[in-house]
């Protein structure tokens, strides 16, 4: 039987660098995870492409997806819906491939309930002032939205104990290496446990 892939969840406050770190991980040729593209009702930012960065939907379309059970998880974040299409995740895991989700904490909590065996990683900023600096410097949000995202960031950071690992994003390359090392170690741990049980059964 085909071994299932690992579900990797990366969360962290808005502006910490999740997208930057994720893009850096996926730009490396030895990365074997598959990225799950989310659905959102947020308007595209300059340069964002439908079907690449997100699947952009209206609120009506998104709510229809909720009703039809097409989302593994979803949450409302600072005025917009965000969600993970369930079919893509299930099909990819069933093919034995690892799936990488980059989602906020309320959604991650729902995923934890459905996939307790997933690997949950929380990305931390070096400080709150650096977090503010990053989200302001990105220049994609209005002052009001930045304020709301930073308020939400405090609540999100309080939820970091729900995660298996906390990784600091002081430098993008280092954060990428830490995340890849965690995934590698998790694979080794699972293989070892399975191997040990198989050996045990052979002896019995
Ligand atoms: N290690 C880092 N050092 C300095 N700047 C960084 C670092 N990582 C990311 N940044 C910068 O911080 C800003 C926010 O990064 P990014 O958009 O990746 O954050 P995010 O966590 O995905 O945000 P959101 O949740 O709002 O989508 C970007 O301008 C990015 O270039
Ligand atoms: N619960 C979910 N959260 C998601 C998903 N896709 C992205 N996100 C998170 O939303 C915020 C805001 O994103 P932005 O692109 O508007 O800056 C951020 O924390 C993302 O990680 C999802 O499918 N589900």
UniProtKB/TrEMBL annotation:
It holds the Pfam family Guanylate_kin. Coiled coil: none annotated. It is an enzyme of class 2 (transferase). The keyword 4Fe-4S does not apply. It is found in: Cytoplasm. Signal peptide: none annotated. Its EC number is 2.7.4.8. HAMAP family: Guanylate_kinase. This is Guanylate kinase. It comes from Neobacillus sedimentimangrovi.
